[in-house]
Amino acid sequence: MRLNPTQYFSKPAQLRRQRQHLPAADSTDFPVRTDYLQALRHTVDSVTSVSRWFNAAACWATPAQIEQIRHLAGVRVVVARATKTPDLLPAARKGSGTAEPLTTEDLQLASRQTSALGGPALRKARLTGHGLRIAIFDVGFQGVDGHPAFQKLLASHQITDTWDFIRQKPQVFGYGNHGTEVLSCLAGQLNDSTCLGLAPEAEYLLARTEREHSERFSEEEAWLAAAEWADKRGADIINSSLGYTERRYFREQMDGRTSLVARAAAMAVRKGMLVVCSAGNDGDNQSWGIIGTPADNDSVLAVGGLDPATWLPVDFTSRGPTAKRRIKPNVAAFGVAITARPAGGFERNEGTSFASPMVAGFAACIWQQQRQLTAMELFQQMQQSANLYPYYDYAQGYGCPQASFFLRPHRESGPSRPTFDFVRQENGLLQLVIRPEASASAAETLPLQQNEPHSPLAALPELEPTAKATLPQTPPAYVYLHTADARGILRQYEVREVTQRHVASWPLATLQPGDVIRVFYKGYMEAYKVSR
Predict the structure, then answer these.
(1) Domains of the chain: which residue ranges?
(2) Are 43 and 75 in contact (CB under 8 A)?
(3) DSSP letters spanning 112-173
(4) 409 Cβ partners below 8 Å, 6+ apart?
């Protein structure tokens, strides 16, 4: 089928492909043949969606009709999915539900949720997402068209397109409030003009792809349709604070390839869009616990959640790795945020749903500065900018992206000054000892520590986060450490508070040849490889 890219794609979409040296169009952009679709419509009850990217169509069909479909011209494969009664979804992590005035700590959080990523420096550099288009896929955007948080967004006509892929109409402001909260973490403002997100000057495409209180496979079809729509209309970034988990899949299917949305997200990246997705809120769900899809795809920038009071991963943030043992999440941001309340006012909300748009807004600012980057180059550089890189774990990835990485005049810098040492003792223990010059307190004489049986780490008291009157502006000086096997797969990881110079011990007899211990402290990372 022929396709004229200059007529089909919007000008921003054409420019996005040109900047990233992508073809103006390829075979995955070609429309599905009309004669094939006509034959399908004559065979089934109804065709619910059509995908150019996958040269496919979704439909309602009986078992007898499915057999007929298999023999239609042009049909290569038929995937039948059983229908079921929609499941009620668990309640989202929410704020108080009432329009109470923001406290002093809330106002502090409103500022810190952007400054944690370098918001003041980005604004000083006049990086506000201007010239970027961000598509948001969500359950609805109730109240956006009348909320004061979005007054400037509306007055400047920065919401360029909307579409409800559930009801097939342009109105998205009458359903669901989750998208409203997510949008506020990109472009919302408090009444005093405090920005709740990092991209107040970007343009937005709002897509409703989810139903409230139910879970159906058709939502993944809507996600795919929205991605093709966003591609056509020139989106640079897709934010998807959505995920599909145990109600539809088994844990071993979180491999980045099984689900339709994972494959759709990968295709979106091939078209030059950066896909940013929340890691999920199942970290404290014992029956699941891991990231959902499409965050499981290796081309998707998955975002975990941090507690702004401690800068440690919040309990509910979903953990990695993927079923294929890839590192997930990739980065992290605050999983507690001040958001617009659709009924009016503002409130504190919890969830990686709000960490994701924080990072998406950060990406828009960086792409505004460096438009020559491809989507995957931006992906990689955002990981490298994170405050723990090259250290990583399965709760926060490489940590929180930092604007200073992109804004400092000379990005290349010398090696960090060592802050600790690995000390091998004659009794077979490998000890981690903080250097005196990096110690927060004077060295103490420590009692001999006993190791737990079959544990690679010495038994030390767990960190007890304490309530703080104010939120720390920067991450406390924790020690981050993990042990990995020869393939790079983590067996254990943790964060420890430094109260003494001797932080941890490993009995070498419990480690395997090729095992690697990585430690990060005060900007310095070192790895110890076991070889015996």
Answers:
(1) 104-406, 420-529
(2) no
(3) HHHHTTTHHHHHHTT-S-TT-EEEEEES--TTTTT-GGGHHHHHTT-EEEEEETTTTBS--T
(4) none
Find the angle CA(128)-CA(235)-CA(278) to the nearest 5 degrees: 75
Instruction: Write phi, then psi, for 29 (nearest 5 degrees).
Output: -90, -15
Binned average pLDDT, 10 residues per bin, the chain of 532 residues: 89 97 96 95 93 95 94 92 45 52 93 97 98 97 95 96 96 93 97 96 97 77 97 98 92 95 98 98 92 97 97 96 95 97 94 98 98 97 97 97 89 76 92 88 39 36 46 90 94 93 93 95 95 76
Pair of tokens at residue 437: 């010059």
Q: Say how far apart CA 160 and CA 250 lie, in whole Å.
A: 38
Number of alpha helices (DSSP H) and beta strands (DSSP E) in the chain: 13, 18
pLDDT at 178: 95
Residues 6+ apart with CB under 8 A from 195: 114, 119, 123, 188, 189
Chain-centre distance of CA 408, in angstroms?
25
Reported as type and span, the H/E element at residue 404 is helix 404-407
Three-class DSSP labels, 180-235: HHHHHHHHCECCCCCECCCCCCCEEEEEECCCCCCCCCHHHHHHHHHHHHHHHCCC
Class assignment of domain 104-406?
alpha beta
Q: Is 385 helix (H, G, I), strand (E, B) or coil?
A: helix
- The encoded tokens of residue 35 equal 């004669």
**For residues 289 and 87, what is the distance between their CA atoms, to the nearest angstrom?**
19
Amino acid at the residue 313: P
- Give strand pairing partners of 499: none
> What is the per-residue pLDDT for 525?
96
- The confidence score (pLDDT) of residue 413 equals 61
b vs e for 234-255, b when ≥16 Cβ sit within 10 Å of the residue's Cβ? bbbbbbbbbbbbbbbbeeebbb
CA atoms within 13 A on the CB side of 440: 12
Q: Which two tokens stand for residue 205?
A: 């495409």
Give the three-class secondary structure for 302.
strand
pLDDT of residue 212: 74
The whole-angstrom separation of Cα 204 and Cα 132 is 9
Strand pairing partners for 237? 134, 274
- Cα–Cα distance between 255 and 266 in angstroms, integer? 12
Going through 389-465 in order, the beta strands assigned E by DSSP cover 420-424, 429-434
Phi and psi at 474, nearest 5°, equal: -130, 160
Helix or strand holding residue 239 (H, E): strand 237-240
Sheet containing strand 420-424, edge to edge, reads 420-424, 429-434, 502-507
Characterize the bridge pairing of strands 46-51 and 56-60.
antiparallel
Q: Give CB contacts under 8 A, 24+ apart, made by 434-443.
A: 434/479, 434/498, 434/501, 434/502, 434/503, 434/521, 436/501, 438/521, 438/522, 439/498, 439/501, 440/477, 440/498, 441/499, 441/500, 443/500, 443/501
